[in-house]
Every structure is written in structure tokens, then in C-alpha cells.
Design goal:
TIM Barrel; eight-stranded mixed β-barrel; 20 strands
């Protein structure tokens, strides 16, 4: 029958010790004491703002594929055990307030942001990218496996928060050890098995009575038979006590068997994690995309160009930024001078990335689409669909504008771009411009990024998008980030919808 492994028993022992004489402990602090220790070569950072977790290993563990696989497997075995104990009420984990980040290792002391880098301890260990920790000489001291979606949520729910330990936790180890020393009965009917135990006990007692007690009763004087009768009753009492003890042991076995089955089912439910982990290791850091259970919520972002210079590097842990959209191109020849560096920093910061093209009336639509896509695709794939920025500055000041031609050209640009990127582009504009130059109902096929600087709860929408609604709202153009100012954007919904 299934029993707790030695590693699982050790974790249960440590939980029991932590629960002695205390009302509660912090789960992530407890894990630092025996699992995430520098001497073990493990660490964990949970990034709640970006909704991912990174399991770090020292190079000698991470670079050896077999050791890395074993460490990740052990980590998920720990999560499965803690989740099992939590579900069964042996422990309870509360997260009253969600921290922006959890730093879990015994050598991480008071992490803070210094010179746009995350400084982790007094040794000078720092991180400037999600999956790498370096020492002051820029040597890699830890490399990480990134977990997202369901994997991230499992980690967060299991390793972080206030831990309450039930007094019943101690039942598991004696039960497991007793069950391991017994032979599992073939018949699973509890009453039948108890009857077998009682019958066996009575049989042994009757054999003892027939072979010994009757002989003694036939040989002692009558006046001694009263004492013998008392001895007889004492033996009966002992026999019945043994029967009760055996029955109790059997019920303990039945309970442990149910626990073992539950743990087996739990392990089965997380088998997909292990499959994902194997695939992730083959790709060094990334897990295959899971199908997350998403809820709609508010996410914040900024959009930037050369005018914001290196603003991305000034974003700190205190900024609640999830997505950043940077300018890539304009017209048919201009590339933003900060585009490449912004792209790299956004990727390193693990933000959702978008790129936009500033549309110029008068430049050939097809050439603009070709130019934009050539520049963007040379860097890779954006998380957010390509964006076209069209506003009053898109129009020349000294030329009379034909509104019909403008709309025809812009639609041609959008169709050309969509054919190249295989995604439906997003239109950035404001309601006054759109009500004059974007009146064709075909524009409503494209998602809207609306600029409307107001203190109201919702933006004013152009007539064309009254029914379709908007996707992103640029609410103000003066958001402080570090020492600089940027446009501030809001998205409400599921991230999977933003990145489709």
C-alpha cells in the first residue's frame, strides 16, 4: 500500500515542530529554514505583479539536466504534499494581504531596488532579468525555471502566507508507519475484517482455555477454583482488549488507506505539471502554455517613444505596470531611436510588450505596413497585436484632406498589416478625430485604444465604436515613472484577450 516517502515524512516532522508552542508561522519563512537554503542551492521568487514564479537553482544543479529534472520534481512533490495537507485540514494557509513579491531563501535579506537592479542580499547578489541572479562580478550564481498560469497559482497558494498547523497533523506519521508494517487485507469490507480479527482472537483464546485452563481447573482443589475463575475472567478481559486494539488498528489502517488514495489522486492531478516541467527543461526556462482559469481585472500600462528616453529602466517594484507599448516606426522611413533598447528592456522586465506605428497620410499605405512589419518582426513577436496610431498629427497641415480617401487608405494599411502579422491590428485615436475621419463602420472590426484624458469612470467613445466598445484606455499623459513622465493606460479584462 502507498505510504509517505521519507522526504514527505521529514516535511511533516518539520511542520509538527514548527507548530509546537506557536499560534501561527509564516509558510514562506518556514520553507527558508529547511528547503530553500543557500547550502541546498535552491531559491524561489514569486512575482505577483507579473503573475509568475521563478524556481532558482545553482549552476551545478541547473546546468545538469538530470539534476535539474530531479530538483523540479522534488519541488512539485513538496507542493503536492502541502496542498494535500491543506485540503485535508491538517494545515491551513491564509494570505490576508498579497505582497508584490516573495523572496524565499535563507540568504535573501531585505531585497531592494538599487540602480534599477533588484539587490537581494548583503553579498551583492542582484537580478536584472527574471530568470538569472548574479554576484557583484556578474557571474551567474542562480538560474531559474519560470512558472506561469496554473503553476504560478499553485505555488502562490501553497508557499506564501500565514500557516496554521492542526494538532491532528501528528496522526499521519503513526498511521503511516503502522499501515506500512501491516499486510493490507484482501477484503475491503471493514465489518468482515473486524469479525475476522475477533474470530481469530477468540480461537486463540479457546485453544489456550482447552489446553491449559481446563487442566488447571481439574487438578486444583475446589476451594482454589474461585481464584482460578478470577484468573479466567482476567484472561478473557485481556483477550477482548487485544481484539479491540486490533480493531482500532484496522480502522487506523482504513483511514490511512483513504489518505493514501487521496494523495494518489492529488499526485495524479498534478501529473500534467511534471509533463510540463520536462518540456520546460528541454526549452531551458519556459513551460508550455497552460489553459489558465482567468478572471477579469484591471491592468495598468504605459506607452513610450523617444520622448520618454530610457524610462523603462526607471520602473520599480512600486509601479504596478503590466504592459508597455513602445513606438517602432513612422511613415515609410523613420524608426524610433529607442525602439530596440526599449524592446530589450521590456522583455528583460517580463512586461507584456506592444509596438505601434505612427500613420502618415500621404505615404503609401502598403509601404507603411511593409516598413512597420519589417522593423518589428526583425526583433520578434509582440504580446499585444500591432497598433496603428492615427490622430490629428497624422495629417499634413498645408494640404486639404479628403476624408473618404483618408479612410480608404487607412483601411488598406490595416488589411495589409493584418495579412502580414496574422493578427487583427489595434487602432489608437481619440473621439474627436475619429468622429471626423474614422466614420466608416468597417473600422469597428478593429479593437480601439482610446485616448481620453478625464476624471470620469469611462472614456468618451467615437460613434463608430459605440457598440463595439474599447480595449485600452489612455487616461492621462502625465504619469510619473521614476523621474520621467509617460502616458498612462488602463486595460480591464482577461490578459488572454489583450494578447490575442
Amino acid at each position: 500500500m502507498k505510504t509517505f516517502s521519507d522526504r514527505e515524512k521529514d516535511v511533516i516532522h518539520r511542520l509538527m515542530q514548527a507548530g509546537k508552542g506557536r499560534q501561527a508561522v509564516l509558510m514562506h519563512e518556514l520553507l527558508k529554514t529547511f528547503y530553500f537554503r543557500e547550502e541546498n542551492g535552491r531559491a524561489l521568487i514569486v512575482q505577483n505583479q507579473g503573475e509568475y514564479a521563478v524556481f532558482f537553482l545553482k549552476p551545478e544543479l541547473f546546468d545538469d539536466a538530470e539534476k535539474r529534472d530531479d530538483e523540479v520534481k522534488r519541488f512539485f512533490e513538496l507542493l503536492a504534499l502541502l496542498s494535500y495537507l491543506n485540503r485535508r485540514g491538517y494545515i491551513t494557509v491564509y494570505r490576508h494581504v498579497t505582497e508584490k513579491m516573495y523572496f524565499i531563501q535563507d540568504c535573501f535579506d531585505a531585497p531592494k531596488v538599487v540602480n534599477n537592479q533588484l539587490l537581494l542580499n548583503t553579498k551583492g547578489y542582484y537580478s536584472s532579468s527574471p530568470d538569472t541572479i548574479r554576484d557583484p562580478n556578474k557571474n551567474t550564481v542562480y538560474s531559474g525555471v519560470i512558472f506561469r498560469d496554473d503553476h504560478y497559482r499553485l505555488i502562490l497558494e501553497t508557499v506564501a502566507g500565514t500557516l496554521l498547523i492542526s494538532g491532528t497533523l501528528g496522526e499521519l506519521l503513526p498511521s503511516a508507519e503502522t499501515a506500512a508494517s501491516e499486510v493490507a487485507p484482501e477484503n475491503t469490507d471493514g465489518n468482515t475484517e473486524i469479525q475476522k480479527i475477533e474470530n481469530k482472537t477468540k480461537k486463540e483464546f479457546n485453544k489456550l482455555k482447552d489446553n491449559n485452563m481446563n487442566n488447571e481447573l481439574n487438578t486444583v482443589p475446589k476451594r482454589g477454583k474461585a481464584k482460578t475463575a478470577l484468573l479466567y475472567l482476567f484472561v478473557v478481559f485481556l483477550a477482548l482488549t487485544c481484539a479491540a486494539a486490533l480493531a482500532s488498528s484496522y480502522w487506523l489502517y482504513i483511514r490511512m488507506e483513504n489518505h493514501a488514495q487521496s494523495l494518489s489522486l492529488l499526485s495524479e492531478s498534478y501529473r500534467s505539471f511534471q509533463d510540463s516541467i520536462l518540456a520546460a527543461n528541454a526549452q531551458a526556462t519556459e513551460l508550455p502554455p497552460a489553459t489558465p482559469v482567468e478572471v477579469e481585472k484591471t491592468y495598468y500600462g504605459i506607452d513610450i517613444s523617444k520622448y520618454n528616453r530610457n524610462i523603462v529602466s526607471e520602473i520599480t517594484l512600486h509601479d504596478s505596470i503590466t504592459f508597455i507599448i513602445c513606438k517602432a516606426t513612422e511613415g515609410v522611413t523613420y524608426t524610433d531611436p529607442y525602439f530596440n533598447s526599449n524592446w530589450d528592456i521590456i522583455r528583460a522586465g517580463n512586461y507584456l510588450l506592444g509596438a505601434y506605428h505612427f500613420y502618415r497620410y500621404g505615404d503609401t499605405p502598403a509601404r507603411q505596413a511593409d516598413f512597420f512589419w519589417k522593423v518589428v518582426s526583425a526583433k520578434g513577436t509582440t504580446d499585444i497585436a500591432p497598433v496603428v496610431d492615427v490622430e490629428q498629427e497624422s495629417l499634413p497641415h498645408d494640404v486639404e484632406i479628403d476624408a473618404n480617401k483618408f479612410q480608404t487608405d487607412l483601411l488598406a494599411f490595416l488589411e495589409n498589416l493584418q495579412a502580414k502579422c496574422k493578427r487583427s491590428p489595434i487602432i489608437y485615436t481619440n473621439h474627436s478625430f475619429a468622429n471626423k475621419y474614422l466614420t466608416d463602420s468597417r473600422f469597428s472590426r478593429y479593437r480601439l485604444w482610446i485616448a481620453d484624458y478625464t476624471h470620469h469612470d469611462t472614456p468618451v467613445l467615437p460613434k463608430t465604436w459605440k457598440e463595439a466598445g474599447y480595449t485600452i484606455w489612455q487616461k492621462k499623459d502625465n504619469q510619473s515613472v521614476g523621474s520621467r513622465i509617460a502616458d498612462f493606460d488602463i486595460y480591464f479584462g482577461k490578459l488572454s484577450d489583450l494578447t490575442k
